[in-house]
Amino acid sequence: MRTLYKAGNSICTQKVLITLREKGLQWDEHNINLFLNQQYDPAYLKLNPKGVVPTLVDDDSAIIESTLICEYLDDRYPEPALRPADAALRARMRLWGKAIDEGIFEATREISFSAMFREKMKAMSEQQRAARFRNVGDPQKRDRFMSVYAEGTDSRFVLYAVAAYEKLFKSMQESLIEHGGPWLMGAQFTLADINVMPFVARLNYLNLLDVWTATRPEVLAWWSLAQQRSSFQFAVTEATLDEEVAAMHTHGSHIKEAIRQRRQEFLDAVKTW
Ligand SMILES: N[C@@H](CCC(=O)N[C@@H](CS)C(=O)NCC(=O)O)C(=O)O
To answer: Is residue 226 domain-resident?
Structure first.
């Protein structure tokens, strides 16, 4: 039997849930409460030394990193295939996982943090906050948290986040046009789509998606189809509590104008670089 260590409303966990569901697999779940710092529990750190979710334990092997867990599942349980058979296309597909891991995950964390978790942290005691800022040997992650906590959308990390999303949506538009859609790699639904779907969903929940997609009809068509996928409905739509939906919408709406301005600031700056 396999066990998924997960947290509520965790985007990386959603990628794995979509993949498990697409594969028609069964699994047990173990919830890790991130606000209670259960990710730093020594027993959990043995499974996932990074102190993050998700972790999949399958046949006694602990697999970490959501992109790698999804690839592992596609290797181990090949049907239905979630990667192109052609090696060159497969390499290009993997670029989407890299884009998520090399910027979009942080971007989403920073935007979500500036909109919501910042408010939650303000309500914490000094001691609780210090514990939350604690991290497993990663001073950069702590700096990012602290900057966004102190400065909100004025933090330079929020500008980096806005720029990362601009690049992602531009690439999505180009890929959908190049491969002819409806999915990022063309006719086949792949891990590229799975990697991106929960991140687009988060922006949508925060009422921020149209900042990037208003002028990108190809991306909107992809998003409309993505939301209809039953694995997405299971892993994201049905798994997100009504109060979470309401909170994300309210908090995201509060920063929308600031995010719009930061995007414009980025677009203006690009012209002069
Ligand atoms: N690159 C990792 C990121 C995992 C990650 O940071 N997960 C978040 C939840 S989406 C987490 O566990 N955060 C807890 C913390 O940073 O303390 C992956 O894709 O699995």
So the answer is: yes
HEC secondary structure over 82-94: CCCCCHHHHHHHH
Do residue 247 and residue 155 come from a single domain? yes
- Residue span of the structural domain in which 53 resides: 2-76
Ligand 1 center to residue 12 CA distance, Å?
A: 7
Closest ligand 1 atom to the C-alpha of 132? 17
pTM value > 0.85: yes
Establish if 145 belongs to a structural domain: yes
Does residue 249 have a pLDDT over 80?
yes
Query: For residue 137, what pLDDT band results from cuts at 50, 70 and 90?
Result: low
Closest residue by Cα to atom 2, ligand 1, is 65
Burial classification of residue 69, based on how many CB atoms lie within 10 Å of its CB (0-12 exposed, 13-18 middle, 19 or more buried): buried
Which residue, judged by its Cα, is nearest atom 10 of ligand 1? 10
Number of domains in the chain: 2
pLDDT surpasses 80 at 232: yes
Ligand 1 probe mutation, 52, 70, 136, 142, most atoms within 8 A of CB: 52
The answer to whether residue 172 sits within a structural domain is yes
Torsion of CA 180, 182, 186, 191, to 10 degrees: 150
